[in-house]
């Protein structure tokens, strides 16, 4: 009878996979022996495998190069990293080893840009695509960046007030962009994104706010939909509408030369995940070129702002099952040594699913369980995977406690959970370990941040 955990995984998925394999009944992630890391550092533990960041950037860039070559596309491609996905210095430094640019969202992002420039990680020629609502301090810092010679810092106008704000603050001309307020899918509770200017208002907005202002040179039209890039009629319809607006504007504004299609590449959230990145990029490039050719305008430079795609698959979060509770004859709760609400807030806030696997005891029989977090909140639990409305794990062991892993958690979880702040029930931040490869390709680990201590929290609380 095949009732071992490894049998369950083999029967359910095509396994092993590129990033996962099992040796001696323990899981390896990107060839990292996870139990060795756990024995060295303990749990709860957040892990960042930096080479995956550069790998994903290189893959996307190659797909665009292939598509441009196939369709004889005349524009350029520019990969921007969406900083809000993870602002950590080790993420930014790894990403900037590649030929990329940056997208910002708020005032403190500009301080980060200046730090990177002082470290010689970026130059004043890098594109800085400035999205988000422009509060006064954001406007001031962006203007300072432009005055300091960042010739490709591009404020993306998000509403009708921003041109006046920049006109009052800027002492020299700059490149600017306009964000389109895309229409959302019917399942949303609102019809149009709160971000940007409506499709029908883009041309009047340009004529009224930009065309005759010598401080502004419109160079970019920005398009993004909340559900991301997907092979659906909805996505293709929104893309075509945006390209049509681009063509209209291009005829009025010859210096307009770039279309920013935003981010939204999905990342792997199940071992059954399938997404043809090459096909999607090829089709996007083809659609843009065809529409521009039909309208008689030069195809634009293409910008993307990949955040989760860049950093998400580099992360993992590990917990130990410290005990099991049986509340009735059917429900068994495996209680972890951390909190979902603080360490994986998307799992609680938006019911986000991550790849979830046992780290050890793959040779043991499996059972259906629920996972409970450390807080005293009834919402602190995890009860299903992406592919099934259940969780199965090896039966709890006494000789070596069961360790479980959530994978591809590298985007947003740290910032949403509030690194170094106060968390529900004063549950501390887990320790954070970085894994890199040395010049010989050997894996090396280092502790980036230890588990949060009581004194840190009490100091924030004023004790």
The dominant shape is: globular
Q: Report the total helices.
A: 15
How large is the radius of gyration?
A: 24 Å
The number of domains is 2
- In the CATH scheme, what's the topology name of the largest domain? TIM Barrel
Helix content estimate: 25-40%
Overall pLDDT level: 94
According to CATH, the homologous superfamily of the largest domain is Alanine racemase
What amount of the residues lies in strands? 15-25%
Regions with little confidence, pLDDT below 50 for 5+ residues: none
Give the key terms:
463 residues; 15 helices; single chain; eight-stranded parallel beta barrel; TIM Barrel; 2 domains; globular; 23 strands; alpha/beta
Topology readout:
Blueprint: H1 5-12, E1 20-23, E2 26-29, E3 32-33, H2 34-41, E4 45-49, H3 51-71, E5 77-82, H4 89-95, E6 101-104, H5 107-118, E7 128-130, H6 136-147, E8 153-157, H7 162-169, E9 174-181, E10 197-198, H8 202-209, E11 216-222, H9 233-252, E12 258-260, H10 277-295, E13 301-306, H11 308-311, E14 315-326, E15 332-336, H12 340-343, H13 345-349, E16 355-358, E17 366-368, E18 370-372, E19 381-382, E20 392-394, E21 403-407, H14 413-417, E22 431-437, E23 443-449, H15 454-460
Parallel strand pairs: 4-22, 5-6, 5-13, 6-7, 7-8, 8-9, 9-10, 9-11, 11-12, 12-13, 15-18
Antiparallel strand pairs: 1-2, 2-3, 4-14, 14-15, 14-21, 16-21, 17-20, 18-19, 22-23
Helix pairs in contact: 3-10, 5-6, 6-7, 9-10
